[in-house]
């Protein structure tokens, strides 16, 4: 076949394969509607149990503006690194501000992660003690906020039961117990400093509150990183799991599990099914698996393998590495898409995977990355539109101006 014709046919077939990832506005609106429907099922007492989107109350409530000022200690535990921070909050009638004055990172040793809950929390208290010593504030009894990014069922702002460890943590005797209680006990066991543990929140909630200090219309928090989750301020009367009618409470949607009851079946592609089946939790967190960084690179790799098998890429031959699950890292997706146009970055990544790409190969790989990350962003945007519609309807407003606080590695690193 003539080389020009070959290029044209290749491009047309690649486009056909990628068209599955391009969602029409009508389809995205459908995702938005289904998300809102499932959110309402999660909020209502009689449907909560069976709803895929759990809508967990956080006990973080709307408060009078600018009421909290002074020095605070903040802890952040959500992975193998643990952070201690000293935060100053100040302000006046008009606005408040926060300044992170000091912070330190500690890494959690393997034996603390996998030993007993006492060992883990003793280690955390030891790090706090070290931090307070270094900054000469051990004599102060500071109020403390704890960002704890594991699944928790809250019973109050300062009381939450750890449901499951995730992310490689195993410390025994913690699951089923109040995390704030475990922390307070560890501080008591040391006896060399005192702390007033005021609140424990999730990373989504921490993101929302943190952004709220700078922008009073921030009432949604979203994480797009290894995982994907969002929270927002819901009317108390709608949060049926908690008594009370007045004001608003922040609800952690746990929307990553959207789709687990079949709501996304008409949107999930063959690649999504392979990713799910090979994961540690098949059938769970299906919406998250379309979006988050833990899966994005692998989705790209599966599409590349499909193109190789159809003889559309790399002369129909994959390297051993490309055939290996997990070899196409999510950070490669960002790197491929930020290539300056000379294909150098793309070429280097593909070479590191043992491939010898042509210019057309590089361009196709870039299209694959763009289509998959764009679908991720659109899916995420559709869910967010569901949340914002819900807020607008519950507030009985025709329009709503709202700010969304966003964090997470994919959001921060993807161009
Ligand atoms: C998806 O891929 C097609 C080629 O199949 C390309 O024309 C299009 O720009 C890509 N879309 C996005 C959003 O990257
Ligand atoms: C909190 O965050 C973690 C990690 O982001 C998540 O797995 C967990 O389900 C979240 N929700 C709650 C209510 O703890
Ligand atoms: C969490 O714990 C529940 C019951 O305690 C169990 O059914 C579920 O599979 C666990 N989930 C994970 C992700 O480990």
The fraction of residues in strands falls at: 15-25%
Q: Tell me the series of helices and strands, N- to C-terminal.
A: HHHEEEEHHEEEHEHEEEHHHHHHEH
| Largest sheet descriptor | 5 strands, mixed
Small molecules bound in the structure, each named once:
2-acetamido-2-deoxy-beta-D-glucopyranose
What's the rounded overall pLDDT mean? 93
Helix % is: 40-55%
Provide the spatial order of strands within the biggest beta sheet.
1-11-10-9-12
Span of the ends, CA to CA: 38 Å
Uncertain runs are none
Q: What is the SS-derived class?
A: alpha/beta
The number of helical runs is: 14
Q: Which of globular, elongated, flat, extended, rod-shaped describes the shape?
A: globular
* Rg calculated over all Cα atoms: 24 Å
Number of strands: 12
Question: How is the quaternary structure best described?
Answer: single chain
Protein name: Phosphotransferase
GO molecular function, one term: fructokinase activity
Domain Hexokinase C-terminal: 220-415
Family: Belongs to the hexokinase family.
